[in-house]
Write a structure and sequence with these properties.
Elements lengths: L9 H15 L36 H5 L9 E4 L19 E3 L5 E3 H7 L2 E8 L2 E7 L9 E2 L3 H15 L26 H5 L17 H8 L15 H6 L17 H14 L3 H10 L8 E4 L12 E3 L1 H12 L3 E2 L2 E2 L3 H9 L3 H5 L10 E3 L2 E3 L7 E5 L3 E6 L4 E7 L10 H15 L2
Antiparallel strand pairs: 1-7, 2-3, 4-5, 4-15, 6-8, 7-8, 9-10, 11-12, 12-13, 13-14, 14-15
Helix pairs in contact: 4-8
């Protein structure tokens, strides 16, 4: 694994690391609109305005790329079906709702949206649309990269397959994927995968060129491979190269994106269906999605399970309302009620605490969902650069929020998001 990075594309990496490092130190650029910034301007686009695989994760280029992923990468469609699930509309102004940010300073929800580089936001309360705003050229029909919100979709379906007996949560993944028997993943159980308690050695530091996530994005061809590159050229090959472990499986929570791809691999083997097909058949075609979704693919046509799903804001909100309804839509139980209740109850908080996530104290991780264990029992799906789906059972509230934040890590804005969401919950619960 280490040797494969020797030929890493330094022209890309140095920009990514230096920009991310500066931003995490607080030197953030002013929010820009991709159209006003002149991105992809002209026919053909001028060289200085191009968004490519070499710069799509840089700011401001990501303000365009997160809404146009299909123009950069191969994809697989996730068809919708039937009549869209419509919500009553009772819009109200939420911009002036005050709260104190993570530094104790007075701010408002409207200011928070700007400060966190929001592309769109939808707030549902008691099954009604109470707030919906679009920025940065987004519209209700614009698909947006969800990044690791994709993990929660994988986890939800995998937990359903466990409930149905298609997957045995106690079985090692090698039972379903024999190709992994000799790797550090082979004896991890399906439950270990679901709750990210896998001891495989896999580092995920976005600003470290030696991190394993670098090997991942190269194998997925999310960035250009440099001349002479001899590493894995697809995700399955990369996964089969993970032969080292740092601790026993099941011992502690450790956030490792590759685990979601391993789980999806087992799901495909057990069902004989692609991930896109499963998501369409079990969710998108049945929950009243308004638009098709789609997955980014690696070079051999494998869905990027850990972060490659794209959907519209409203359809993300529909998924959140489905979770708030404990898997039920229009009298039909799409996801077993018990699966959603187990997610809401959360996972092992002691195992989670061992990960040392200081911006998520007292949380847990269950079936690839983040569980806050706050007084409202809120849980959520999250993706880098500002993607969030927040479900608050006590307030009967769902918040879907998409963004193009210059800093990849959501830990950078964890605290202010929680304060903003809790302020909304308090206001709407009056």
């Amino acid at each position: 694994m280490r040797g494969m990075r020797a030929g890493w594309s330094w022209f890309f990496l140095l920009v990514w690391v230096s920009v991310s490092g500066a931003q995490e130190r607080g030197q953030l650029p002013q929010p820009v609109d991709w159209l006003e910034a002149g991105l992809m301007k002209g026919f053909p686009p001028a060289k200085e305005s191009l968004v490519t695989k070499a710069n799509w994760l840089n700011y401001p280029q990501l303000t365009w790329s997160l809404q146009h992923a299909r123009e950069l990468f191969p994809t697989r469609n996730v068809p919708r079906g039937g009549k869209p699930w419509e919500f009553p509309v009772a819009l109200c102004s939420l911009e002036s709702i005050p709260f104190k940010d993570e530094h104790g300073k007075d701010t408002t929800f409207g200011r928070f949206l700007k400060d966190t580089y929001t592309d769109s936001v939808l707030v549902l309360h008691e099954g009604r649309v109470v707030y919906e705003r679009y920025f940065n050229q987004m519209t209700p029909r614009t698909p947006h990269m969800l990044f690791s919100v994709s993990k929660s979709i994988v986890g939800l379906l995998a937990a359903t397959l466990v409930r149905e007996g298609v997957l045995d949560e106690r079985a090692p993944v090698s039972k379903y994927v024999p190709e992994l028997e000799s790797t550090a993943l082979g004896d991890a159980t399906i439950r270990d995968l679901l709750d990210m308690r896998v001891g495989v050695k896999f580092s995920e530091v976005y600003t470290d060129p030696r991190s394993d996530i670098v090997a991942y994005v190269l194998a997925a061809e999310w960035v250009p491979t440099p001349p002479g590159y001899t590493g894995p050229k697809d995700l399955y090959s990369m996964i089969k190269g993970l032969t080292q472990r740092e601790r026993p499986h099941g011992e502690a929570f450790g956030y490792k994106s590759v685990v979601s791809d391993v789980l999806a691999w087992a799901m495909k083997k057990a069902t004989g269906k692609s991930l896109a097909q499963m998501v369409s058949e079990r969710l998108w075609s049945r929950m009243g999605a308004e638009e098709d979704g789609f997955y980014l693919l690696d070079p051999i046509g494998t869905e990027v399970a850990m972060g490659g799903f794209n959907a519209t804001l409203r359809d993300l909100g529909r998924l959140g309302q489905l979770m708030l309804n404990k898997g039920e839509v229009g009298g039909r139980q799409l996801i077993p009620r018990e699966v959603v209740e187990e997610i809401m109850a959360g996972g092992d908080r002691e195992a989670f605490a061992r990960a040392g996530m200081t911006t998520r104290p007292g949380w847990s991780y269950k079936d690839q969902w983040w569980v806050t264990h706050n007084e409202n029992g809120a849980f959520m799906a999250m993706g880098v650069y500002g993607q969030r789906l927040y479900v608050d059972p006590k307030a009967r509230m769902v918040i879907a929020k998409l963004g193009s934040h210059p800093v990849a890590s959501n830990a950078f804005t964890d605290l202010v998001h929680m304060k903003a969401f809790q302020a909304l919950a308090k206001e709407l619960s009056h």
